[in-house]
Every structure is written in structure tokens, then in C-alpha cells.
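Exercise 7b. C-alpha cells:
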């Protein structure tokens, strides 16, 4: 589906929010969020895009659906969080830019190889970030993984993306471009 998301469409999704706090109390990631989900919905209702996209709250949503299942108003809160992620990605918001590049590098690697090739994937991600310091932030973890033989420099043999997997990627692209 083409990006039809906007703050107004998200506002329409949460317009019935009565600020009861059930979503915040249900959220398994609320402890790590800078704003509670309830606070985020209030900002959405007020149309405060700057505050919304300066927050990490929507990016930390793990789509567990607890908030949606427990909402007394039956609001599609998980879908609203996903819409905020799509808006942030499409508008190239800084808080979500790195995650979008990571996700794209991951998908490209799986599509090319039929599975994840860690070294190739991380190289593509670092290259796309254009941040020369970023690889050094991952160096301690990479070193530990190398010593434990969880990753290596030798590329395992693959025949590329299996036909069924390629068909799946084409179908997703078709659905996204509607």
C-alpha cells in the first residue's frame, strides 16, 4: 500500500482515547520509553508532530498487541504505532532513519542470499549509514561473536534466494505499491 499515513489518520485511529492509561500499564516496553503510550496518544490528538517524532516511544513498540487487546475503547493502538513508524520512515525522521537503513540492509541480504550473511549484511548497513564511527560501536560485540565462532569471514555457500522466497518478496512489493 502506498503511504497514506499521516498524523491525521493516526489521530482518527485514537480519537476515542479517554486517557485511562490501560495502554501504558499493559505495555511491556513502557519502562524504556521516554513517553508513555498514553502521553503519546495525547500528543497525537493535539497534532504535535515535533514532540511525537522526537520521542522514542513509537520506535520501541514491539507490536505485542497487549495495548490493543486491553483498550476499553477497542482502539487499534498497535496499528497506530505502526503507522507512526511508517510516517517517520517516509518523512526521513532522524529517530527512525537508522532503523530503516538496518531493516533495508537486512531484507536486501536475505533476498540476495536466501538467508542472512552476517558480515555482508553488517558491511552493507555500515556503508549505508555513512557514519565512520558506527562500526567501532559494534566492534566489541563482533569480536565476541568471532571468538565464539558465531560469525566468520568465510561466506557459506548459498544458491541465492529460493524461488518461493523471491515470490514472497515480489508479492510484498506488489502490496506495498497499491
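Sequence design result:
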Amino acid at each position: 500500500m502506498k503511504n497514506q499515513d499521516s498524523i491525521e489518520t493516526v489521530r482518527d485511529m485514537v480519537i476515542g482515547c479517554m486517557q485511562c492509561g490501560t495502554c501504558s500499564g499493559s505495555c511491556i516496553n513502557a519502562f524504556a520509553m521516554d513517553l508513555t503510550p498514553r502521553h503519546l496518544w495525547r500528543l497525537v490528538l493535539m497534532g504535535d508532530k515535533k514532540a511525537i517524532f522526537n520521542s522514542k516511544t513509537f520506535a520501541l513498540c514491539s507490536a505485542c498487541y497487549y495495548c490493543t487487546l486491553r483498550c476499553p475503547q477497542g482502539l487499534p493502538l498497535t496499528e497506530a504505532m505502526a503507522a507512526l513508524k511508517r510516517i517517520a520512515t517516509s518523512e526521513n525522521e532522524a529517530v527512525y532513519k537508522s532503523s530503516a537503513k538496518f531493516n533495508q540492509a537486512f531484507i536486501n541480504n536475505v533476498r540476495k542470499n536466501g538467508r542472512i550473511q552476517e558480515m555482508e549484511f553488517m558491511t552493507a548497513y555500515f556503508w549505508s549509514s555513512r557514519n565512520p564511527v558506527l562500526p567501532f560501536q559494534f566492534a566489541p560485540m563482533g569480536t565476541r561473536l568471532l571468538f565464539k565462532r558465531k560469525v566468520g569471514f568465510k561466506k557459506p555457500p548459498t544458491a541465492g534466494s529460493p524461488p518461493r522466497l523471491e515470490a514472497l518478496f515480489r508479492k510484498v512489493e506488489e502490496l506495498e505499491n497499491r
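Instructor comment: The mean pLDDT is 86. The radius of gyration is 19 Å.
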